[in-house]
Model the fold of this input.
Amino acid sequence: MRPARVLVTRPAPDAQHWVGLLQARGLHASALPLIDIVACAPAAAQLEQARRDCATPGHYRAVMFVSGNAVQFFFDQPQGAQARIAPPARAWSPGPGTARALQAAGVPARQIDGPPADAAQFDSEALWPEVRAQIQPGDRVLIVRGSQGDSSGAATAATGQGREWLADQLRQAGAALDFIAVYQRRAPRLAPQAQAMAQEAACDGTLWLFSSSEAVANLQQALPGTDWSQARALATHPRIAAAAQQAGFGLVQECRPSLNDVVASIESAP
Done:
């Protein structure tokens, strides 16, 4: 049985992109972004140095981008400029969305490593088995990410776990790590119309589509005291499902984050 509506909680404009994909599959979908993405520009000299290092052959063994937003903000350059990661360095992606962003920025597909298309999840844990053989003691890896500790600490809990786990694996393999934060995730201020939509969706059969546990935390922050026992959620990762359950959602399902799996799970939702 299809739900009356699906609420996509990804950051805008990614939420609108997913709304379009779901609507094209015949689903009634609306966007309710629960994460804002804003520039968190490091010192200009630091960013330019990181770009130069990436373009210098042999400086990095790999450059890990934690998301498509990391790609966008790192390679936010004048019109016509292209991303440069000098071979033999590899560009690491935790999933297909980040890989597409890298290719759009000009990084050749043959230079990008990520989880296989049929991976159970798209995250750092799925990436590591694909790339760990590349790392030798003394290799240097750059991790391009969002800032830590934003959203009043929610970002560290929601987005830091995967990347910190990968950093630990790299250190254990003997790699030297550099980090640069190029964007910030924060809780949005919901307009009255968005608040009303969220309140209705707590009990009207709407299916909440969560792709981040941070979105769940931001929803609780925006609507404190709301009873979620009648609300329904579809989560694209076990950690996100656990966050929705802890928030009190009455029905929580899990699915792989690919479009086909999301659509199939929506269409089969009880």
